[in-house]
Each structure stands twice: as C-alpha cells, then as structure tokens.
Amino acid sequence: MSEKSAVSEQNNGTGTPHWRDYLALTKPGVVMLLMVTAVAGMFLATDPPGMVPLSTFIPAFAGLYLAMMASAAINQIMDQKIDAIMKRTEKRPLVAGKLSPKAAITFAVALALASMAMLYFLVNPLTAGLTLFGFVGYAFVYTLYLKRATPQNIVIGGIAGAIPPLLGWTAVTNELHPYAWLLVLIIFVWTPPHFWALAIHRADEYAKADVPMLPVTHGIPFTRESVLYYTILLFICSLLPYLTGMSGLIYLVSAVILSGIFLVHAVRLRFSKDPKLPMKTFGYSIVYLFVLFTALLVDHYIPVHPGSF
Fold it and tell me: What tens digit of pLDDT does each residue of 5-61 get?
C-alpha cells in the first residue's frame, strides 16, 4: 500500500472520512470570527435596541454560517497545491488525503445550495444576493485570481471577507444602512495588518509556493511599514461609529484602548526585529476584532453619552 493510500485510510481504519475532516475543511476558527461580526450586525440593526426575532435570527444565522463554511471549503479545494507546500496548511484534510476532492466538492456545493435557499426563502433576497456576492468574491475571485495575481490581493479581496456585519444587518432590516457599511469599513481596513503580520512570519513559505504576498514581492521591511500605516488608518476608522452617533462612550473608550494596543504592536513590529512579533501582532488582531464588536454590542444595549453625566 502506498503512503498516500495509507494516509487516506487512516480514519477509523476504514478509509471513511471522519466528520472532523469535513469540519476542518470549513476553517471553523475563521468562520466563527466572521459569524461574531455577522451576529453583531443583526443585533446592532435593532432600533430601538432589542432582541432579534427568532424567526429571523435562526435562518439568518444558519444560512450565513453555511455560506461561510462553503466559501472556506471551496478555498481549500482551490488551494490544494499551495497548501501542500506550506507548513501551516500541509495537514489540511485534502492535502493529507483524508478527504477526496469529489467528497469535498459535493460537501461544499451542498452547503452553498442550502445556504442560498435558506437565506432567499426564509430571510430576504437582498441578504441572499449579498451573501452570494461575498461567496463568489472570496471562494473564486480572491482564491483563483487575486491571490496569485497581485501583492494587493488581500486588500482588493478584503471586501468579500468584510461584509458579514452587513449581511447580519440586512437580514434584520432588509436595507443597506450607512452604519452597516461603517462596520464593513472597519473590517476592510483591519484585514491587511491582520493578514500581513501572518504573511511576514510565513514569507519563506509563500515564496516557495510562488504566491505574491506583500513580503515576498516588496520585502519584509516594506510590509512592516504597511502594517503600521494600515493600523493608524484602522485607529481612525474605529472612531467613526462614535463620531457619526452610532455608538456612545463605552464603545469610544473601548475603541481607543483596543486600537492603541494594536498600534503599539504595529510600532514594535516596524522597529523591532524580534521574530515573535509578527505572530503576536497577528494573534492580537483577532482579539481586537472580537472585543471591538463586543464593545459595539454592549454600547448598543447600555448607551452612555456625554449628556448622560
């Protein structure tokens, strides 16, 4: 028996894929973070602040979750060759032979179809259409073209990954509200410093895989500077919910503290050669987004404004 065959048959000794292999195909950690922003969008859309009706919340949550899982699965299907070269992704189920491409494609298509049906018929066509836009943008435009075409791949393609809060908002209101676009803007600007910090740490692997990430094409010093500049821009953008009247002082204080810590990470990354800093910055960026959107929710339900004192 070949080594590849042995690997593909390691699951329960039968060769049958384990449910954990299908779960790993969907990048559950990434999807969970995106769903936090989508759920935040749902609850932030309530005016006055209240509970999202379960008749909306349940199908919207399930439909968006399935769509994001499908996008992640398609991404892994398209990226098998790259994933096999990079240490970070060499144990993914398709690369390791735990799932066949046919099984993965069938699974991804089923998720996508179930998602679209649920969102279109049980939520609203606007949310279904926007979700389809995000799905195609990430799973195909970014993965198949942008990722391999330009070092600005993560910037241009970032809009697809930034729309979950907009999807959550439209699921509740069936409208494209300016406040929802503010949330999209924050994630859009957050994406480059978040991902480029990881790309710095994995620059050699991206070079080996012939993927034109910024540290590969423009060098690590330039990428460090870019992380800093985008973090400064993120600091400014994070203040917009307060400046536009969307949120109050709880959010403002949280945004200043969180963005200030992010800026400290970016400054240290720019001027220090400590090899641990890229991953520390990457790790904090995940915490940053989660806590920032949590602060938005807390502020939405416990509003504190200057006139309150």
Answer: 433 444 433 457 789 999 999 999 999 999 999 999 999 999 999 999 999 999 999
Q: Which pLDDT tens digit goes with each residue over 250-286?
A: 999 999 999 999 999 999 999 998 999 999 999 999 9
Distance between CA atoms of residues 71 and 74, nearest Å: 5
DSSP states of 214-250 as a string?
HHHHT-HHHHHHHHHHHHHHHHHHHTHHHHTTSS-HH
Distance CA 200, CA 275 (A): 10
| SS3 at position 152 | coil
In angstroms, rounded to a whole number, what is the distance separating the alpha carbons of residues 39 and 42?
A: 5
Q: Which amino acid is at 232?
A: I
Contacts of 126 (CB under 8 A, 6+ apart): 170, 174, 175, 176
For the question of whether the overall pTM of this predicted structure is more than 0.90, the answer is: yes
Determine if the peptide bond prior to 215 is cis (ω within 30°): no
Cβ neighbours for 98, distance < 8 A, ≥ 6 positions apart: 7, 8, 10, 11, 17, 18, 21
For each of the domains in the chain, give its residue range(s) and CATH number, in order of start.
Answer: 1-176 (1.10.357.140), 177-309 (1.20.120)
With vertex at residue 230, the alpha carbon angle to CA 140 and CA 280, rounded to the nearest 5 degrees, is 90
CA 247, CA 242: separation in Å to the nearest integer? 5
Residue 46 identity: T
Residues with Cβ < 8 Å from 77, sequence gap 6 or more?
A: 94, 101, 104, 105, 108
CB contact burial 25-43 (16+ within 10 A = b; e otherwise): bbbeebbebbbbbbbbbbb
Return the amino acid letter for 90.
E
